[in-house]
Q: What sequence folds into this?
């Protein structure tokens, strides 16, 4: 395990700027998640670190060594792909042993066997080692894909949405397991995802990436509580933050155009008030309810206690409680 | 219930449809098999039965065709034949019934060996070149890629025989006329464009993440190609190899033009097998029957891959 340092890296494909001036340091043993929508440049960033793409500018250092021009094989990184990760013509064992059997590595066959079995136990797939890779369920395939990376002890594990093709229940299980394994092994991981729950629950730091630029990086708590702009604020939080004209409410600081109100920033009371809204729809989720409001023609979504018993057509009053403010270009304005 | 009936007929054919489709396939197979059956039957007829009219379906089988295919014979007087010792094997005794003796082996075996060397040699070369070029075109940013691919395809847009005369002159000048090497190169050049296009399609279907994963895991690109791409391209390689082999095996026009004594293949040799008083039809049929064997064997050996080739793309990616 080692420190990975990315310095001012840019990459364009034709006229599309995939990654712009990305700088990021991933500390030894750290779990960093890159969070962003599809096409934000997350995967390109991973591929640049792996050496599958060459940056147009900037440098990449792994463990203090400049690897910017090195071939993927010489970088000592492991990659977990989103899909297509298993070789269909090989068994699970052969898939997991594949990296260790690389001609340059010369690992004795007995050591390979020990290592693969150890990792298979860790991932609960030790009974599947003789199966063809195509005879597995989706969850097992993804475990093998992670196992293929774990048999090595690389400087860094690069993971490209490894859980995104799984159903919600499996995703939840593997999320916990992956975090446990990372802590046990002290592994350095750069994890790319568009799923805020994965980023929030596993990462020690989250980098929010948008349009090829790293917008903000910090602990999940920092990113959630102190987003530097409206983009970052909209990335985290369920339901998504409500961005409303500041003029609708009183007490906005100078320069604030938009007010960002998450559920915890909105106090709702039955009956009209200074700022009134109408309940359009209530979605019951069980432990809580999604409340869809109409505020002067703008939709507002927030959470409510199911006990509160709101129904469509009710009029409620809204009061802000330490919300976030943004200027005309979306940057944060101090309250 | 209209929608349910429709869905049923789309997803699973009814027993009647299945039987109807089955009989159509059998009928088609029977029709295509008739010329083949004719050839095989003729191979076992005597020369008289072969040209009798109306054609005989029931006849006394004879190996004369095969004997005439493999031997040359000379006519002798009955007295001379009687003065010889006992016949040297089956073919000699058949020949003696017609007042002939076996003079020596025919050219069929050397021609057949030429066919094997030239067809398999050019197939191996075309598939190897095709696989590597297809991989390059599939994976790398090749300058003028589309133009190059079109150029490769355009070599097949005219019938190859259209360039027969320039090739004949060139081959004569550089000494490739009537050589196996010359024929291998010629058939390779015709087949390689087909191979590139067919294989590019198959290799495009193999996700490049497989090689990328291998390269990150410590393999060079070439090692990744051998370990990961080739095993998954076997279906395409097998299908391409069969197409290339069938072309090179059956090619007639260039073989007639460019080969004679030394490198002649079986196709120009078989139809000109002359017996007493003209074409020796049972021998021609026997030569053709044996000529079919290698292609059948090759296709049966690669059948598993071919079947997978037909269903290619049906599996979930």
A:
């Amino acid at each position: 395990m080692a420190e990975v340092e990315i310095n001012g890296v840019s990459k364009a494909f034709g006229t599309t700027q995939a990654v712009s001036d990305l700088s990021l340091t991933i500390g030894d043993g750290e779990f960093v998640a890159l969070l962003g929508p599809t096409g934000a440049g997350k995967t390109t960033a991973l591929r640049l670190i792996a050496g599958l793409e060459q940056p147009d500018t900037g440098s990449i250092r792994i463990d203090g060594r400049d690897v910017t021009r090195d071939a993927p094989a010489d970088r000592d990184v492991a990659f977990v792909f989103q899909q297509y990760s298993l070789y269909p013509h090989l068994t699970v064992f052969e898939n997991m042993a594949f990296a260790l059997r690389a001609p340059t590595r010369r690992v004795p066959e007995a050591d390979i066997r020990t290592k693969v079995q150890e990792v298979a136990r860790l991932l609960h797939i030790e009974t599947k080692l003789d199966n063809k890779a195509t005879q597995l369920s989706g969850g097992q395939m993804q475990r093998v894909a992670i196992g293929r990376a774990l048999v090595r002890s690389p400087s860094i594990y690069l993971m490209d949405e490894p859980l995104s093709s799984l159903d919600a229940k499996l995703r939840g299980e593997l999320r916990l397991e992956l975090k446990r394994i990372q802590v046990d092994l002290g592994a350095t991981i750069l994890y790319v995802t568009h799923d805020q729950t994965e980023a929030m629950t596993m990462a020690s730091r989250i980098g929010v990436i948008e349009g090829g630029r790293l917008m903000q990086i910090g602990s999940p708590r920092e990113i959630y509580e102190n987003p530097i702009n409206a983009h970052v604020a909209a990335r985290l939080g369920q339901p998504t933050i409500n961005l409303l004209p500041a003029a609708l409410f009183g007490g906005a600081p100078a320069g604030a155009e938009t007010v960002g109100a998450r559920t915890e920033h909105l106090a709702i009371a039955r009956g009209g008030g200074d700022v009134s809204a109408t309940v359009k729809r209530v979605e019951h989720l069980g432990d809580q309810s999604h409340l869809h409001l109409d505020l002067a023609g703008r939709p507002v979504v927030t959470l409510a206690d199911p006990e509160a018993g709101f129904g469509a057509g009710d009029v409620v009053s809204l009061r802000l409680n330490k919300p976030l403010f943004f200027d005309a270009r979306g940057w944060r304005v101090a309250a | 219930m209209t929608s349910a009936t429709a869905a049923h007929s789309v997803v699973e054919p009814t027993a009647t449809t299945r039987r109807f489709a089955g009989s159509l396939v059998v009928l088609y197979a029977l029709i295509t098999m008739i010329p083949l059956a004719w050839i095989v039957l003729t191979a076992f007829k005597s020369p008289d039965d072969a040209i009798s009219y109306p054609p005989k379906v029931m006849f006394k089988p004879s190996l004369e065709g095969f004997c005439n295919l493999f031997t040359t014979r000379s006519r002798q007087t009955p007295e001379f034949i009687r003065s010889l010792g006992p016949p040297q094997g089956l073919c000699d005794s058949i020949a003696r019934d017609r007042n002939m003796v076996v003079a020596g082996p025919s050219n069929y075996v050397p021609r057949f060996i030429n066919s094997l060397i030239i067809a398999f040699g050019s197939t191996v070369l075309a598939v190897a070149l095709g696989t590597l070029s297809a991989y390059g075109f599939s994976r790398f940013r090749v300058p003028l890629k589309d133009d190059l691919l079109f150029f490769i395809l355009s070599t097949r847009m005219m019938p190859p025989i259209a360039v027969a005369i320039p090739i004949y002159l060139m081959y004569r000048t550089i000494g490739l006329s009537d050589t196996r090497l010359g024929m291998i190169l010629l058939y390779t050049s015709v087949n390689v464009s087909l191979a590139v296009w067919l294989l590019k399609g198959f290799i495009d279907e193999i996700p490049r993440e497989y090689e990328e994963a291998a390269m990150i895991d410590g393999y060079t690109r070439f090692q990744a190609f051998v370990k990961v791409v080739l095993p998954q391209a076997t279906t395409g390689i097998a299908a391409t190899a069969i197409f290339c082999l069938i072309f090179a095996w059956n090619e007639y026009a260039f073989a007639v033009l460019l080969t004679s004594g030394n490198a002649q293949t079986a196709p120009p040799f078989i139809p000109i097998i002359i017996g007493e008083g003209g074409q020796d039809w049972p021998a021609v049929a026997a030569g053709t029957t044996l000529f079919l064997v290698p292609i059948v064997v090759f296709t049966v050996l690669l059948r598993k891959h071919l079947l997978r080739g037909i269903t290619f793309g049906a599996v979930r990616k």
